[in-house]
């Protein structure tokens, strides 16, 4: 069968249009892909956003439990800590939220100095966010066995040092602000509960 000249031309045009659409579509997909990659790269290169989404769900009355070690998940007893000791803790039942990670510390009350809020402490216990305000690593406790009251908090990611007796102010390293304090109270049954929420921002602040 012989094709009519007009119909051959139409099919030719259709084929051309289809090819152009395919090429155009390919270019659009490539451009979108490149744009997405560029955004991802910029995201990786840019510093952490302030707070980085750290939203604590700690509420007054939440019981403190161990966040690490062989006792993980069990209620912490006040009598188990001596001056110069510290533990990483979570509010009971809320360990899935990393913003709830807290460092519980026991020191001599006589050593507490501003900006530590004494009203948020009890029997030498005080507590602060355990998320470094630099880039969000978990802080560590550096115990001074010879002088337990001189023990301190350090973030080993970039060596920020915080003074727990003075409201965890920054005494070294790149952390821009102190670790936020949170109130605690010792119950008659020796357990410890939170009495409020964090006094300041938590998580990376750069
Ligand atoms: S993340 Fe803590 S010092 Fe950098």
Mean pLDDT: 84
The radius of gyration is 28 Å
Number of strands: 11
Gross geometry: globular
| CATH hierarchy class name of the largest domain | Mainly Beta
Provide the spatial order of strands within the biggest beta sheet: 1-2-3-4-9
Structural class, please? alpha+beta
- Portion of residues in beta strands equals 15-25%
CATH architecture of the largest domain: 3-layer Sandwich
Largest sheet: 5 strands, antiparallel
Helix content: 10-25%
- Counting copies of identical and different chains, the oligomeric state is single chain
Low-pLDDT residue spans: 1-9, 22-48
Plain-language structure description:
By secondary structure, the protein is of the alpha+beta class. It has 2 domains: 46 residues; 131 residues, 3-layer Sandwich (Rieske Iron-sulfur Protein). 20% of the residues lie in helices and 20% in strands. It contains 1 helix and 11 strands, in the order αβββββββββββ. A 5-stranded antiparallel beta sheet has the order 1-2-3-4-9, with no helix packed on it. Strands 5-6-7-8 form a 4-stranded antiparallel beta sheet, with no helix packed on it. The longest helix has 41 residues. The chain is globular and about 40 Å long. The structure holds FE2/S2 (inorganic) cluster. The site of FE2/S2 (inorganic) cluster (FES) has 12 residues, from loops.
